Prior knowledge:
This protein is an alpha+beta fold. The chain has eleven helices and eight strands. The protein is 28% helix and 14% strand.
Amino acid sequence: KIYNTLSEIWYPTIPSNINTYLDHIVKPTYLTQALGLLNQYGFSINFTFDINILGGNTPIRDYMSDLSAADIKSLKAKNIIYMDQIVSSDGNYLLSWSDVKRNNNNNYSGPIPAWYKNLTDNYVLSNNLRLIHPLNDVVCDINRTHKSPPTIPDVTTPKSQWTIHWNNVQKQVIFGKTLTQETDHLTSISYLQHFIPQQTHHNNSLTPKKQLLGLVACKGCLLHSYYPHDARPTCVIAIRTQKLLLFNIFKKSSFEHKSLLEFYNRQNFVVATKPFHTLRHIAYEHFIKIDKSPLNTSSQRPLDAVFTPYPSLLSNNIDNHIDHALICHPDLKEELKS
């Protein structure tokens, strides 16, 4: 309640003559009214704890006695309560409005406020903005000129968003359902529930484009990433994304989905609207386009991690690790593989 009063009167502490700061308040709060009445009848209150907003030594309301209600509203919006915030570090000069904005990370919009024009018209000596009454003991907040700390990335939870990504280590396409996306101005990270192709229904009499692509949730592979938000997915992949490659799935009520029910033995599955080879080609072409881009950096590529979506590839992945991760005699590598 006390800090609400400080905000109302726009003063860094409770002044002994509080009534002189109430003229702009149309409807003061109960505590502010009570403090004003006590002061009017000669009572004073000494608080047993310190009440003070830090950041300067010269309240702007004491320096400028002719502030209007609109001026105070503008100061509140810009969070300026001390003259120290708008003067040079030696207290001799008023900062230009562009410098005031820069010191506050350019958060101010609109025209130059009337209270600042009043300062330049009546409180400085010349065009160099030298103050008629310089400030003593200026509190210089060095950090106020620094950029704000990085913002927390925006986290979104898309519904039924299916994506593909190319893994260049295993030369294979990754299928996933987006769980969450964390995005800021520099990068984007997508967390996917990993799905793998299921070929139990493969029909040799059909061309590749006629084959339906069934996908089932991966039970776990080396690509699994730590994901604290949901323990239900058994395999979650974190991928840096520059552009999402989306694909659609057939509804469960569709003919395509129903035609594969007998092959999955009550196992949950989805059916992509495009065949495997088409999606694989799209993912690879996108990877090549990014890889050849002159603006390409490692943070812009899809995650190149070891990918083991199928049990049959496990031995190949082990051999791949032995070939590329060990520096030793070739005979020793062959012995380890065996």
